[in-house]
Structure formats: C-alpha cells, structure tokens
Amino acid sequence: MWNNRPIIVRIKRHENVHPFIQALHAQHIPLKRIVFREQEVSFETTMHYLPKIRRVRRRFRLKMAVFYADELQVLRAQLWTLLGLALMIVIPILCAQVIWRVDIEAATPELEQRLGKTFQNTFQLETPLSKKQLPSNTAIRQKLLEQHRELSWVHIDKHGGRVLLRPQESPKQIEQTNEKLASHLVATKSGVITHFNIKNGERKISINDTAYEGDVLVSGVIESGTDQVFVGAKGEVYADYWLECSFKIPTKITMETVQQKQWRVLVKGIHQEKVDYVQKKDLPNWLDPYVSIVEEQQTKTVQVELDESKIETLLLPLLHEKVLRSLPEKTIIKKENLLQAKWGNGTVEGKVLFLVNENIASPIQGLQGE
Predict the structure, then answer these.
(1) pLDDT tens digit sequence for 301-357
(2) 3-class DSSP state for residue 86?
(3) Which InterPro entries match (predicted)?
(4) pTM higher than the cut 0.85
(5) What is the pLDDT of residues 112-171, one digit of tens each?
C-alpha cells in the first residue's frame, strides 16, 4: 500500500533530461502526466519505482525533487488514514457508553449539596461508569423524592456522557393553624403508614401498618389509670396509597418553559415596556429615577407533539404535575405506572397509576371524655 503512493518528480531542465526519460522507459518505469516547462520537467509515478529512478538520475547527474501527489487530499488510501478513520468512529461510540459526570442543578447551593450527598450515599456510584450501571430514571427519582419531601419532581436529562438532575421544589403554602385541638385524628383514606409528624396526642397505629378509612390514627384522650386526660390531637400522619387516574389530552401541546435568569438595565424614556422582574438592584437616589437594574425570568413558548418516545420524558411529568396540583399540600408522588395509552384522532388517552404519599389524618371534634 505504501509503495503504490503516487509521487511527483521534478527535474531541472538539462540536456540529459531526454536521455534520462528514455532510460526510465527502457526500465519499464511507468510515467504519467509528463510536463515540459521552461525551467523544469515533471512527471508522476509511484513510490515503488523511486529507488530505480534515483539510480538512473545519478548516472545522468540531474537535480531532482520528489513530492507526494496526494498531500492535498483529505482521505488517502493509506494504512494510517484507515486506522485514524476507524478510531474516529470507534472512540465516540465507546465514550458514549460511559457516564463521565453526574451534576445537580438546583435553586440553591444548599439543596444541590443535600441532593448530591443523598445520591452518593444511596447509589454508591463513582464516575466514570458504564451506562448499564446507572439506575433507571424512575429509581433515581423515587429515592430522591422519598428522602427530600420538599420536592415535587426531579427532572433527569442525559446529554452524551453527562447526567443532569434538576429538582423542582413544591410550592410553599401558608399553613392555616387551628387553635382548637381535635379529639382524634382519623384516616380519610386507606393506605400504608410511612411516617408521623405529631404535636399532640397518642399514636394508635404504627409505621408500615395499613390504615383504613375512618380508623383512629392519633387519639387526643390519654388513659391515666381510671381517668381520661384530654390533651387534644394535632399533627400529620402520612401514608402511601395507589391512585388511578384517566386522562385524555391532545398530542400537540403548547408549553412555556422557564429559561435562565438574566440581568437587564432599563433606562427611563428609552424602555417604555413594562418588565416583570424577580428582583431589583438598589441604586442611589439620584440615579434611581432614571435607571433600573432588574433580574428577569425568561420564558420560552414551544409547541411539542406527543408520541410514544416522549412518554417517559414528557407525558408522565405532565400528568404528574397535573395530579399533584389537585392533591393537598405537602403531598408527593413517589412513582407512576402507565397502565394503558391509546393514540388516535390527534389525542392520547389512557390510565396512569400513581403511588401517592399524603397526609391522611383529619381532625374530628367531640366530647373531651370520649
């Protein structure tokens, strides 16, 4: 392969040039594109014949320069070129099977640190690692939501060898306090008890027990010998239960996505439009009437068409958010299973099974002696 590489031979004009070329023909050396110029003569051949050409050249005492004819070609029929092309194809394929980084992008550095510690302690993963070793999106999301109940969802994006976790916090709501203590806390739904947050009262059920609708979870009356002492019942009792929901939505939907925040300088008299900003910088009194520096939250409206490839990344998160908004505060959805989905006539309809963790305790009033 190397000996067949084409070369260009250039010889300065001399009276021995013609005999030199005839001698090459006599030795059956193939010459192509022979060009006679004013100062030189050039022709093409291959590396295979270069030793013979040099021996003949020494006999006629000619000055000769040799160049590769394929120097300007991007791809050449050479061993190293073929090996390089093979490596260019194989290396990206091999690297694409490896996770090099797992990053967390949260609203605050404190939340990023807590989630990073939870992720490392739960899965014990060290990068780089094979994609086969990485747990599924559902497993990662479920573990993080179980241990961080202030989150409503965890978005998981995979770009090449990078995995990006973007947690979404639940909307903060003002708790309404009720000064009057209830006699008991009873179950409004059936479910498996996961944890308590009790301020007053006595537990009547344990963690991992199944509670049924109407059962007393926390009693506000404590037995003291033959007496009954009313202390009241106050708190929360969380339980897991399965919720089946039906849905029917169009396949073409318009979404508004939150973009990166950015600072903007507004000059009075030039920027007339009204700007919705997240925060505003404090400026000196003499400058504030004329200039404003605000931080904007940019949004982008996009139209997306749902198909079967977007069930995990788009359809389930949409249904997750819709169902979560209809549930009481502090409720989280640990898991979702798509039972069925039917596509047709520009819509998709089906059923989803959600594993919900909710405060099922409801206060009831009664006589203190009960």
Answers:
(1) 888 888 888 888 888 888 998 899 889 988 999 999 999 889 888 899 999 999 999
(2) helix
(3) YqfD
(4) no
(5) 888 888 888 888 888 888 888 888 888 888 888 888 888 888 888 888 788 888 888 877
Q: What is the DSSP letter of 124?
A: -
**CA 153: distance to chain centroid?**
14
**How far is it, in rounded angstroms, from Cα 355 to Cα 324?**
11
Q: What DSSP string describes 133-176?
A: GSPPHHHHHHHHHHH-TTEEEEEEEEETTEEEEEEEEPPP-PPP
Q: How far, in Å, CA of 196 to CA of 207, rounded?
A: 8
Sign of torsion over alpha carbons 172, 323, 317, 150: positive
The 3-state secondary structure of 283-323, one letter per residue: CCCCCCCCEEEEEEEEEEEEEEECCHHHHHHHHHHHHHHHH
pLDDT in tens, 204-246: 999 999 999 999 999 888 877 777 788 888 899 999 999 999 9
Structural contact between residues 5 and 68, judged by C-beta atoms closer than 8 angstroms: yes
As a whole number of angstroms, the distance between CA 278 and CA 264 comes to 11
CA distance 74 to 279: 55
Peptide bond between residue 128 and the one before it cis (omega within 30 degrees of 0): yes
Find all residues with CB under 8 Å of 325, minimum gap 6, and list them: none
Phi, psi of 277 (to 5 degrees): -120, 160
**Helix, strand, coil share (%) of the chain residues, nearest 5:** 25, 45, 30
